[in-house]
From TrEMBL, chain A:
PROSITE patterns: PROKAR_LIPOPROTEIN. This is Carbohydrate ABC transporter substrate-binding protein (CUT1 family). It comes from the Bacteria. InterPro entries: Bact_solute-bd_prot1, SBP. The lineage of its organism: Bacteria, Bacillati, Actinomycetota, Actinomycetes, Motilibacterales.
Automatic annotation (TrEMBL), chain B:
This is Carbohydrate ABC transporter membrane protein 1 (CUT1 family). The chain crosses the membrane at residues 48-73, 110-131, 143-163, 192-215, 251-273, 299-321. The lineage of its organism: Bacteria, Bacillati, Actinomycetota, Actinomycetes, Motilibacterales. Signal peptide: none annotated. PROSITE patterns: ABC_TM1 (PS50928). GO terms for biological process: transmembrane transport. Belongs to the binding-protein-dependent transport system permease family. The keyword Membrane applies. Keywords: Cell membrane, Membrane, Transmembrane, Transmembrane helix, Transport. The keyword Lyase does not apply.
Length: 444, 339
């Protein structure tokens, strides 16, 4: 479903907005003014008056202000295009959007979470193919891979706005207290560090398995290390999981989990809600680290006692696994974007898509949401060391995969997530995970 | 109205033998009476039609239509966007019936039905007997027992899920009281979690049962108890021979509500165990199965088919219960109704 993506994106847009609001985002206003000039060249299309409705999910703070300003700036540069912005609470957005699209009264522009849902919308003919309207200027600053992540059969259905790769978010203080001076680069080193941290009296790894997808991240990363890029990509279309690397990934996770690295009661710990959630445990120094996407700094920041970004936060990538077929340095990461409805005015909506990809708008996006922007020029203004590390690891990765539950679609993705939780609970074995995923693939 | 009920009570004895034998009952009525009913009937019917039309329209639009649509979508591999086009016949239904996860959800529903009846029934009768006596603080006790039922499921679920965490209040209390051996993983251990759920359900719904039982008790004439006491019956004899039999109709109605509620249980499980791990923890129900395999999996056609199965199971149970258990209580009220 991307239920996982739903929740992840809620983190991104909803919660990061909070963090951004707290962290101070004074810079976005000036950059947006510059942006309107930059995009002004594409002109007002045919000159007829067009109104576009626009749904996003930032109901508070800097995120909401960012989209209001972006829409107003766009109208200033394209006087014949009015954008009616509507912020819809994140958890309500998907259902409302689905109903509206089916009723033929959907918005012209809306948040796109990709994956199975995007495929279902495209199949139902509800999305505009924006391949032809993407300008060369946009292609220059938005990486091909990011556009490809929002494409099906060579047709692009959404404009990416943020990259959200995964890795370990950790507290430098807790690491120091446990006597850890360098970040682990292999799973064996990670295991040794886990024991050191536990010895120092803190939970080592926070895991919110109640939401299933955070637990499944562990399997995705082991699969990324064990399986070749080819196997991962082929599985997306063939929906067959008979390569032995899938089983090996499950075995890796099972033996890693056997060392009890996770917080007690992780099966009923949620990911992002309250101080007792996995992000909350990191925010309050009750756990040393969490494997999560790049929206996590904002989530952690919103759960610290003073609601400010965690001062000693840092990041390292998922360690390498010896003997795996994955390319070392490969990374998993989601991409959030915006789609045009098939019924929207092609010229006006296309212009807006190109506009939100421009460098000044993307810089504003980063400042409002504290998330790495997808625009390569805008990435240069990122200041937080941990976000810089993330961007660096992302741009130098030899292979980038979307979160596997997104890649394999809602049905298989959901089955995969639940099966991984079953594995961690001891209810199934690595073979059971592969079996559950294959069974779901047959249903799809 | 009076004529109507008189007619049905006359018909009832003949009906017990023949299902749907309304015709023979009508013949048994005096001819004069039939004529008087018949002459005003077009007007009566018009009135009935006019007065019930708004309610009927709402009922059709918001109950019958959605049920019909669920049945329709259940035949498709539909992912929720656009029109349902991939007709798959009964494939969704065969998948449901073959899915071990559905079997265990069904089993959990069964356990919840049985333990709701077995625990809450006797407990609520005892408490109702206790609260039915004159004593100090009676009203306060009644309120305290009823409060959990009034609190929203979301609040109850959130509260218990926080208290039952591994490092939550319940384990903390056990530790402090010296019962360290009793500390356990209340929510995630599959052998414990289902009992945790049944415990929360009992805590939440026993107050409702007590209130219903109390209402039943108050309907029993005190003269009967007094007469029995004069004849030398002990307190327990009176309860066993008089109170319990007379409480029968109340008990049967409560059990009916309890069974249907238990079959459709969703909110407590969903809130305490979340969207994903109820099947891992062994607390899934048919309704949580419907959501996780329907909406969460983006398989809306499949989810609709599960909804239909859940509806049919509840309907069959309700009909069987009405036919065989509630029959004597509802004669002339629910099962009568013919002319």
């Amino acid at each position: 479903m991307k239920t996982s993506v739903v929740v992840k994106s809620s983190a991104l847009v909803g919660v990061l907005a909070l963090a951004a609001a707290c962290g101070g985002s004074s810079g976005s206003s000036s950059s947006s003014a510059a942006a309107s000039g930059a995009a002004g060249g594409s002109g007002g299309g045919s000159g007829k008056s067009v109104t576009l409705t626009f749904w996003h999910n930032s109901t508070t703070g800097a995120g909401k202000a960012f989209w209001d300003k972006t829409a107003a700036d766009f109208t200033a540069a394209h006087p014949n295009v009015k954008i009616k912005v509507q912020a819809i609470q994140n958890e309500d957005l998907d259902g409302k959007l689905q109903t509206a699209l089916n009723a033929g009264s959907g918005p012209d522009i809306f948040l796109q979470r990709g994956g199975g849902k995007m495929a279902a919308m495209a199949k139902a003919g509800q999305l505009m193919d924006i391949t032809g309207v993407i300008t060369d200027a946009t292609k220059k600053v938005i990486p091909d891979a990011a556009l490809a992540a929002n494409s099906i059969d060579g047709k692009t259905y959404a404009m990416p706005v943020a990259v959200l790769p995964g890795g370990f978010w950790y507290s430098k203080d807790v690491f120091k207290k446990a006597g850890i001076t360098t970040n682990p680069t292999t799973v064996a080193e990670l295991q040794a560090d886990v024991q050191k941290i536990k010895g120092a009296g803190t939970s080592a790894i926070a895991l919110g398995a109640k939401d299933a997808w955070p637990a499944a991240h562990w399997y995705y990363f082991f699969a990324l290390r064990e399986c070749s890029p080819d196997t991962l990509s082929k599985a997306a279309s063939s929906m067959t999981f008979d390569d032995p690397c899938w089983l090996k990934a499950g075995q890796d996770l099972q033996s890693f989990a056997a060392t009890k690295p996770y917080n007690p009661g992780f099966l009923t710990t949620s990911a992002q809600q309250g101080a007792g959630s996995s992000a909350g445990l990191v925010a309050n120094h009750k756990a040393a680290m969490e494997l999560m996407g790049a929206w996590d700094p904002g989530v952690i920041g919103s759960l610290t006692p003073d609601k400010k970004p965690l001062a000693d936060l840092d990041w390292f990538p998922f360690p390498e696994v010896s003997g795996g077929q994955g390319k070392p340095g490969s990374i998993l990461g989601g991409i959030d974007g915006y789609s045009c409805s098939a019924k929207a005015d092609k010229q006006a909506c296309g212009d807006f898509m190109n506009y939100i990809a421009t460098t000044p708008v993307q810089e504003g996006y980063y400042k409002a949401f504290a998330a790495p922007p997808v625009n390569t020029e805008a990435q240069a203004v990122v200041t937080e060391p941990y976000l810089k590390n993330v961007v660096k690891a992302y741009s130098s990765a030899p292979f980038v995969s979307e979160w596997l539950d997104t890649v394999y679609g809602q049905n298989v993705g959901n089955a995969l997530n639940v099966a991984v939780v079953d594995l961690l609970a001891g209810k199934t074995d690595p073979a059971g995970v592969v079996k559950a995923v294959s069974a779901a693939a047959k249903k799809a | 109205m009076a004529a109507h009920s008189e007619g049905t009570s006359a018909a009832a004895p003949t009906r017990t033998g023949v299902v749907g034998g309304g015709g023979s009952a009508a013949v048994a009525l005096p001819p004069a009476r039939r004529r008087s009913r018949g002459s005003g009937s077009w007007r009566a019917r018009l009135e009935i039609a006019l007065l019930s039309a708004p309610a009927l329209v709402v009922f059709l639009a918001f109950v019958i239509f959605p049920v019909a649509m669920a049945a329709y979508y259940g035949f498709f591999d539909w992912h929720g966007y656009g029109k349902a086009t991939d007709f798959v016949g009964f494939r969704n239904y065969t998948t449901i019936l073959e899915d071990p996860d559905f079997h265990s959800a069904l089993l959990h529903n069964g356990l919840i039905v049985v333990f709701s009846l077995v625990i809450q029934g006797p407990l609520s009768i005892l408490l109702a007997l206790l609260l039915n006596r004159r004593m100090r603080g009676q009203s306060l006790l009644r309120v305290l027992l009823f409060v959990p039922y009034v609190i929203a499921e979301v609040v109850v679920g959130t509260g218990w899920s926080l208290m039952l965490q591994t490092d939550g209040a319940v384990n903390g209390l056990l530790q402090k009281a010296g019962f360290t051996a009793l500390k356990t993983d209340w929510l995630s251990s599959p052998s414990v979690a289902i009992w945790t759920l049944i415990g929360i359900i009992t805590w939440k719904y026993v107050g409702f049962a007590v209130i219903i039982m109390l209402a039943g008790l108050q309907g029993i004439p005190t003269e009967l108890n007094e007469a029995a006491a004069i004849d030398g019956a002990s307190y327990w004899q009176i309860q066993r021979r008089i109170t319990l039999p007379l409480l029968g109709p109340t008990l049967r109605i409560w059990a009916f509500l309890s069974i249907i509620g238990a079959l459709q249980l969703f909110d407590l499980t969903y809130i305490v165990w979340g969207q994903y791990i109820s099947s891992t923890a062994g607390t899934s129900t048919m309704a949580t199965y419907m959501v996780s395999n329907g909406r969460n999996a983006g398989a809306f056609g499949y989810g609709n088919a599960v909804a239909v199965v859940l509806f049919l199971i509840s309907l069959v149970v309700a009909l069987i219960y009405q036919r065989f258990v509630l029959r004597r209580d509802t004669q002339g009220a629910l099962t009568g109704g013919g002319r």
